[in-house]
Amino acid sequence: MAHLTFHQRVVISVMQRDGKKQKEIAEAIEVSPSTVSRELARNHTTGKRYHPLHAERRANFLKKRPSVISKLEDPEHFEVVSEKLALNWSPEQISGYQSRYAAKPMTS
Question: Could you state, in order of their start, the residue ranges of all structural domains in the chain?
Fold first, then answer.
């Protein structure tokens, strides 16, 4: 999945302001119409206006956030997983053990 560039976001803004349809915008920036639709839905401001700078800043902020925090950062989980791996347990066995016996079950 490729991310939109700032230039593509500016084109979306200009073409939307000029009254172009999402399909026309998508063809101009060579992406799927659903990509344009999602971009406009996610990044419009009050009054349904789309601002490319706002959208770019939001995208950069979201890129920097970790999407998943490792469960192994929890010392309790790390210890249990380490012990079970040393006993040659599979990930499925460890997860099953965690869900049955641990206070905080580990899920993916």
Answer: 6-64, 71-101
CA 74 vs CA 7, 52, 60, 69: distances in Å = 41, 39, 28, 10
The whole-model pTM stands at 0.59
CA atoms of 92 and 71, how far apart (whole Å): 15
78 residue type, one letter: F
Summarised one tens digit per residue, pLDDT across range 52-104 is: 999 999 988 888 876 666 666 777 778 888 899 999 999 899 888 888 876 55
Q: Nearest CA to 43 among 59, 20, 31?
A: 59
Rounded Cα distance between 51 and 45, Å, is 7
What tokens were used for 72? Answer: 């192994």
